[in-house]
Amino acid sequence: MDSEIKLRKAEIEDRNIIWNILQQAIERRRQDGSTQWQQGYPNMDTVESDIAKGFGYVMTVDGEIAVYAALIMNDEPAYSTIEGEWLSNGEFVVVHRVAVDEKFAGQGMVKKLFDHIEEFTRSNGIQSVKVDTNYDNIAMLKILEGKGYSYCGEVFLSGGMRKAFEKIII
C-alpha cells in the first residue's frame, strides 16, 4: 500500500518535532565531518521564526512529520551577490534547512520533498527554485544533480561559501 505524502505549512505545535529532526540532522552533519550547522544554527529560534513568517514546511508520511524545510519566496539577500550567474531573474522559491527524521532516512524523502516543492512552485506560477548547500554535503549535491538542478556558482551564507543551484520550473 502506498503511503500518503503531503507538504503543508508547519504550525507552532510542530516546533518540538521539527527541532528534534533538525538536531538529528545537525548530528549527522557532525558525524560526516562537516562544518555545516555546527555553530549553533539552526536552532529553536530559527524554527519558531520560520513558522511565524510562514516559511516553515513539513512533509508528512501518513500524517507523521518526516521532513522539514524552509521555503522562502523571492527573498534571500545572500543570493543577490553570486560568484557566477543565476539562470533567471524572475520569481523564485528558496529552499533552506532541509532535514529528514532518522526514521525516514534512506527512503528517498528529500527527492520526494523536491518533487513537492517543484509542484508548489509550478502551482503558484513561480519561475524557479534556488537552493544552496555546503560543498561537503555530498548527499544533497547528488540529489540536486539527480533532480536536474544547475550549478550556478557560489554564494556567501552563514559565515561560509555555499554551492548555489537553480532549476527553472515554468
UniProtKB/TrEMBL annotation:
InterPro entries listed in its UniProt record: Acyl_CoA_acyltransferase (IPR016181), GNAT_dom (IPR000182)
GO MF annotation: an example: acyltransferase activity
N-acetyltransferase domain location: 5-166
Keyword Acyltransferase recorded: yes
EC assignment: 2.3.1.-
UniProt KW keywords: Acyltransferase, Transferase
Cross-referenced Gene3D superfamilies: 3.40.630.30
Name of this chain's protein: GNAT family N-acetyltransferase
Organism: Chryseobacterium tagetis
